[in-house]
Design a protein that fits this description.
The chain is α/β, with parallel strands linked by helices. The protein folds into three domains: 179 residues, Ribosomal Protein S5, domain 2 (2-Layer Sandwich); 238 residues, Rossmann fold; 71 residues, Orthogonal Bundle (Helicase, Ruva Protein, domain 3), CATH 1.10.8. 42% of the residues are buried. It contains 21 helices and 18 strands. It starts with a strand and ends in an 8-residue tail after the last helix. The strands form six sheets. A five-stranded parallel sheet has the order 11-14-17-10-18. Strands 1-2-4-3 form a four-stranded mixed sheet. The chain is elongated and about 85 Å long.
Length: 507
C-alpha cells in the first residue's frame, strides 16, 4: 500500500513542501530504503523510526519499506523527516485512518523511545504551510509557540509518537497551541545610556548613527568605555515592526539560534563575534550554506571589537554586504542568498599597546608599528564607515559623579522621530533609512545651499575624499538635519557630519 504525508524542507531561509511517499512491498531486507536526495542525517532516520514505532507499542511492518522524498531535486537535510516517515509507515500499514493527515503538514525528530524532539526552521516551515493552504501543522511541543505566530494556522503540539497516534485515531484530543500575542512579547533593554559617564560627544555620534542606520568606528585606549557604549546602542534603536521581527526570527530559526522560551525576537539583534572567527562563521558557509554572523545581525548591530585583529580576508568580505545588504554564498550544491542589512559598529585601539595619543600614559610602540597597525583596515572598508569618533579616557570626576545621564528612552524618542521622517521620505521604495540612499536619492534629498557647497568643496580638497565618502557625508548631514527637525541641510549640519570623518593621518 502507498501512503503520502506532507513534510517540509528548508532551503536557505525558505520552506519547500516535500511529499513523503511510503510504499510497502514484500521482503524484509533492506528494511527501509530512503531516496530523494537525502543527506546522512535523513538516512539515519531509518534507525530512529524503527525503534520509535516498536518502543511506542505499535506494529512495525515485516515488509520492505521504500520512502521517496519528493521533489528529488531539493536537497533534504536534518532530522525533521522522522515523524512524517513514521506516520507514513503507519498509514501504509493501515494502522491510521487514510484521511487523518489530509491538509496537514508534519515535522519532528524522533527519539528511540518515540518522544518528539526539537527541530530547527519551524517558522519558515509554518510560513510555507500557511501560504500553501494547509489547515494545520503537527510540530514538536517545544517548537509550537514558534509556529503559533500565524493566528490562522492550527498548530498541534506533539510530545510523542504515541500521543499523536492516539490523537489521529480519535482516542484523545491534543489541544491546539494558542496563537502568540505579539504585544505580549517583552522587549528588554540590556544596557541603558544613563549608566555611561561622560563621553557626551561619543553618545551624540551613536545617536546620529542610530537615527540614520550609519556605520560607526570608535577609536580609543583600553578601558575608555567603547564596549559599554556599543552594547548600549540597541537600546536607542527604533523598535522593530512585526515584519522585521518575523524576518529576524526566521533567520534565527533556520540557524537554530532562537533563544529558549522566545518564539519571536522583538529586540534588535546585537552580535559581537570574537576576532578569531572564521570567514565562514562571519558571512555564512558550510557544505550547504547556513547563515553567518552578518545575517544573524540582520536588522540589528554587528559589533566588531578589536577591529584590526580580525583577519584581512575576513574583513574584506564585509565590503559587498555593507553596500548590497545581502550576502550570496556559492557552493557546488547551489547558490544561496541571505539578508545582511546590519549596522556595523567597530572599536579599536589606536596602536598595539593601546595608548597612542593618550594624555596620561605613554605609548610604547614604534611610529612604524602604529602606522602598520592602523592600516590593517583597508581604505575601501574605512570609506564605508560613515562615522569615525575618538573615545578618550574618562577622568575621575565624571566617573565618581553620582548623577545619571540622559536615559535611552529619551534618546530613542528623538531617533524614532527622525526615522519617521525618513519613512515618509522613502514611502513607496525599499529604503528605510538615510544610510540606504543611492546616488539618485542623495541628489534628490541632500541638496546644499551656496555656503554648504563651498564648505564641502574645501573639505573635499583638504580631506582627500572619495566619491563614496562625498555621498556618505551628505547622507550623514541629512540625518543630522532630520534629528534637528530641519527640512534643509545647513552648514551646521554639514560641519558636524564632516567632523566624523577620519583625519588623513589616521588612515
Amino acid at each position: 500500500m502507498l501512503a503520502k504525508v506532507n513534510a517540509c524542507a528548508v532551503v536557505g531561509l525558505d520552506g519547500v513542501i516535500v511529499d513523503v511517499e511510503v510504499d510497502l512491498t514484500p521482503g524484509i531486507k533492506p528494511p527501509i530504503i530512503i531516496v530523494g536526495l537525502p543527506d546522512a542525517s535523513v538516512q539515519e532516520s531509518r534507525e530512529r523510526v524503527q525503534s520509535a514505532i516498536r518502543n511506542t507499542g505499535l506494529e512495525y511492518p515485516r515488509k520492505r519499506v521504500r520512502v521517496n522524498l519528493a521533489p528529488a531535486t531539493v536537497r533534504k537535510e536534518g532530522s525533521a523527516y522522522d515523524l512524517p516517515i513514521a506516520l507514513g509507515i503507519l498509514l501504509a500499514n493501515r494502522q491510521l485512518p487514510p484521511a487523518c493527515l489530509q491538509d496537514a503538514l508534519v515535522m519532528g525528530e524522533l527519539s528511540l523511545d518515540g518522544s518528539v524532539r526539537h527541530i530547527r526552521g519551524v517558522l519558515p516551515m509554518a510560513a510555507v504551510a500557511r501560504s500553501e493552504g494547509f489547515k494545520r501543522v503537527y510540530v514538536p511541543a517545544e517548537d509550537a509557540p514558534e509556529a503559533a505566530i500565524f493566528p490562522d494556522l492550527e498548530v498541534i503540539p506533539v510530545n510523542s509518537l504515541a500521543e499523536l497516534y492516539q490523537h489521529l485515531t480519535g482516542q484523545v484530543v491534543i489541544p491546539a497551541q494558542p496563537a502568540l500575542k505579539v504585544e505580549h512579547v517583552e522587549v528588554l533593554v540590556q544596557t541603558d545610556f544613563r549608566e555611561i559617564k561622560g563621553q557626551e560627544h561619543v553618545k551624540r555620534a551613536l545617536e546620529v548613527a542610530a537615527a540614520g542606520s550609519h556605520n560607526l568606528l570608535m577609536i580609543g585606549p583600553p578601558g575608555a568605555g567603547k564596549t559599554l557604549m556599543a552594547r548600549a546602542l540597541p537600546s536607542v534603536l527604533p523598535s522593530m515592526t512585526i515584519e522585521e521581527s518575523l524576518d529576524v526570527t526566521r533567520i534565527y530559526s533556520v540557524a537554530d539560534a532562537l533563544p529558549a522560551g522566545i518564539p519571536l525576537i522583538r529586540n534588535r539583534p546585537f552580535r559581537a563575534p570574537h576576532h578569531t572567527i572564521s570567514h565562514a562563521g562571519l558571512v555564512g558557509g558550510g557544505n550547504w550554506p547556513h547563515p553567518g554572523e552578518i545575517s544573524l545581525a540582520h536588522r540589528g548591530v554587528l559589533f566588531l571589537d578589536e577591529f584590526p585583529e580580525f583577519g584581512s580576508r575576513t574583513l574584506e568580505v564585509l565590503r559587498q554586504p555593507l553596500e548590497d545588504k545581502i550576502v550570496t554564498i556559492s557552493r557546488a550544491q547551489g547558490t544561496l542568498t541571505f539578508p545582511a542589512n546590519f549596522q556595523l559598529l567597530a572599536a579599536m585601539n589606536p596602536c598595539p599597546c593601546g595608548y597612542y595619543g593618550d594624555a596620561t600614559r605613554a605609548c610604547t610602540c614604534a611610529p612604524g608599528t602604529v602606522t602598520k597597525y592602523q592600516r590593517r583596515i583597508s581604505g575601501p572598508l574605512m570609506d564605508r564607515i560613515d562615522i569615525h569618533v575618538e573615545v578618550p579616557r574618562v577622568d575621575y570626576e565624571k566617573l565618581s559623579d553620582a548623577r545619571l545621564g540622559e536615559p535611552s528612552s529619551a534618546i530613542r524618542a528623538r531617533v524614532e522621530n527622525a526615522r519617521q521622517v525618513q519613512r515618509e521620505r522613502f514611502a513607496g521604495t525599499s529604503l528605510t533609512a538615510n544610510a540606504d540612499m543611492h546616488p539618485a536619492q542623495v541628489r534628490q534629498f541632500c541638496s546644499l545651499d551656496e555656503a554648504s557647497r563651498n564648505l564641502m568643496r574645501a573639505a573635499m580638497n583638504q580631506l582627500q575624499l572619495s566619491a563614496r565618502a562625498y555621498h556618505r557625508i551628505l547622507k550623514l548631514a541629512r540625518t543630522i538635519a532630520d534629528l534637528a527637525g530641519s527640512q534643509a541641510i545647513t552648514t551646521t549640519h554639514l560641519a558636524e557630519a564632516l567632523q566624523y570623518r577620519p583625519r588623513v593621518s589616521d588612515i
